[in-house]
Design goal:
Layout: H1 3-26, H2 31-56, H3 59-64, H4 66-88, H5 93-108, H6 115-129, H7 135-152, H8 158-174, H9 180-195, H10 197-205, H11 217-234
Helix pairs in contact: 1-2, 1-4, 1-5, 2-4, 4-5, 6-7, 7-10, 8-9, 9-11
InterPro entries: Adaptor_Cbl_N_dom_sf
Protein name: U-box domain-containing protein
Length: 241
């Protein structure tokens, strides 16, 4: 998820990283330029952090928060442009020309979400906006939403479900207790994934396929237990998401 966003952001990071040493060696004799250089380094660190976070986050979670990530990338690009512009006037002409080329790249850089990510985002968010008349209708909508979302995000096999489940659990281990909304969201996604795990695989084939069964009986038992725990924990929270 966010493959194109991260690729574009990494491309900008690589371009700017190549010129940072030249700028530092030039030692701009200007307070504004030196402050801009410090800010540029901090912005590079934040950009790398965004890519790192995307690499270790759940695909479902990234889809739901995709607009937030898109906004971060755009703000980082704008910050790169601002600080490089402030530095450009305080360095030698050859170095200023190199900065000019990077500024051109920054201004032409396009960050956008992929269609599949946007589809997954919309179908998952729609769950949080609906008022269900009964449990049966809620479960029906949940099943349809998670089937569509996982299909769009390439979570189509028992193995990919395992990976997604483990990733969500890792995020839950790291989530700050001061961020209860994020914790609730992750718990709900885990609940949906575990509860509908077999239907997700069947949905891909259009029919039940033995190749998508969980052959490890001990793991199957673990999932059943987790489903019960998740359902108990989430039932009272779904309406608040």
């Amino acid at each position: 998820v966010h493959h194109s966003l991260c690729l574009e952001l990494q491309r900008l990071i690589d371009r700017i990283s190549l010129i940072i040493l030249d700028i530092e060696s030039a030692r701009p004799n200007c307070k504004l330029a030196m402050e801009a250089l410090c800010s540029l380094n901090l912005t590079l660190a934040r950009a790398k952090s965004v890519i790192k976070d995307c690499s270790k986050c759940s695909k479902l979670y990234l889809a739901i928060t995709s607009r937030r990530i898109l906004s971060k990338c755009q703000k980082l690009r704008n910050a790169f442009e601002l600080y490089l512009t402030e530095i450009q006037g305080a360095v030698t002409i050859p170095l200023a020309d190199k900065i000019s080329a990077i500024l051109h790249d920054l201004r032409s850089a396009k960050f956008s979400l992929e269609f599949t990510e946007e589809e997954a985002r919309k179908v998952l968010l729609s769950l949080f906006e609906k008022n269900f008349s009964d449990k049966a209708s809620m479960e029906k909508e949940e099943l349809e939403a998670i089937q569509i979302a996982t299909s769009r995000l390439e979570i189509k096999s028992a193995l990919s479900i395992l990976v997604e489940k483990a990733t969500i659990k890792n995020q839950l281990d790291e989530v700050n207790e001061t961020n209860p909304k994020e914790k609730e969201l992750l718990e709900y996604l885990l609940y949906l994934l575990i509860k509908n795990r077999k239907s997700i695989c069947q949905f891909e084939d259009g029919d039940h396929s033995p190749t998508h069964d969980f052959h490890d009986q001990s793991f199957e038992h673990e999932l059943v237990v987790e489903e019960a725990l998740c359902e108990k924990k989430v039932n009272d929270e779904v309406g608040d998401l």
